[in-house]
Amino acid sequence: MKPVTAALVGVLAVAAALAAGHLVGAVVGLSASPFLAVGNTAIDLTPSWLKDFAVTTFGTYDKVVLLTGMAVVIIAAAAAAGLASRRTPTPGTIVAIALGLLGVAAVLARPDVGQLGVLAPVTSVFVGVWAFRWLHRKATEEPEAGNRREFLAIAGAAAVAGAAGHLFGNRVDVQSSREAIGEIKAKTPAKPIPVNADFAKDGSPTFITSNRDFYRIDTALTVPRIRAEEWSLRVHGMVDNPFVLRFDDIRKRDLVEETVTLTCVSNEVGGPYISTANFIGVPIRDVLTEARVKAGADQLFSTSQDGFTAGSPLDYVLERGMIAIGMNGEALPQEHGFPARLVVPGLYGYVSATKWVTDLNVTTFAKEQGYWIPRGWAAKAPIKTMSRIDRPRGLARTPSKTVVAGTAWAQPKGVAKVEIRVDGGPWQETELGADVSDSTWRMWRKELDLPKGSHTVECRATDKSGFTQDQARVAPVPDGATGWHSISFTVE
User: Which of 7, 13, 291, 356 would give a disulfide with 79, using CB separation of 3.0 to 4.6 Å?
Assistant: First the structure.
């Protein structure tokens, strides 16, 4: 058997195995697809330093990079198995079984996959072994015919099965469910945003971030697909009155609207993972009051449809938390948690902002740990006082008279002032945008007249408690980055 033919036998057999597993996964639960299950498990097992590197380097494309890397490794392993099987199909058979068992282990490790989910990787094992041995036999028996028909048949079947799995796996029509909800209005609307709340014309972000531009960082390889009509939220644990909420139960309540800035703990100094929206929902306090929390509870442990978990300090969520169903006047976008998510001003998202939330367990920090805590992150993560320069960009060329503009945040304390200094000189206080809320960011600007040449500008914020952000550069792990943001530019 020619080397190219042998490698192709391995690649086509693995493609057929993965496609068959993906198709079965679409029936029993898309997360059971061996390829996706292994990818999700890889995310779960990724050490914090590597996860931070991926987010910092690739941003929201980190999962695309992961899946692409997995595909490259699988293709290489399949080709190597084919080359090792030029004389006998035994090596390739062993590799097919090993890859299948890896898929079985990944599915069994997933918290969001039921017992039937194991059918997907088991199917992959059988299809992979059969396809490899069949193609190997054909290539050995008819080496001069090129085996084009057999190879095309397997490739075509894999393509059809993969496409069918994708279509069937996405059969839940979330968009029509969102559209049927229509506009979401609050009985208690948020205060109007003053026109001078941002300095967008000078380079700061707009005060309200559009749903399309709102940052997204989560662990989901595939966004959960839940129709509002089928969603439910279980409230239980250390309560006297456990119950289940449906979407309509929440919508019929007195909805409130709050302007909230959410911040990701993965944000490096000067990073982009911070956004602000008008969220609509019900206070968690109202829900837990009905549940009647027992003495001794100190954590609200929330679980997502995709198995992600987060633990929030109970006193904090009782004071500020919300079960949100709306975002900027419409139902939550699917990628931002539709039908419902948690929003807690002042806590980093990994301990509070559970999307696609389906379970609220009132418990203690001693009993339960959220997804990121065993991975080296802090159990309690209040947002740190920080600031960022948005304009000018680093290495930009500007006129002598220029405006430096940016953003500061200190939820829920609020921003009292922002200062900048040029080339290590004295600190100068900046002009602040309108103070909308202690739970939101605050924009700032400063007009400068600088001589020609290279310059460096630094910024720092002071919150309303009198605390000025730390100068020391600290990485995001374990509870958020610190440091003064600085940029260098040239005046022409």
Answer: 7
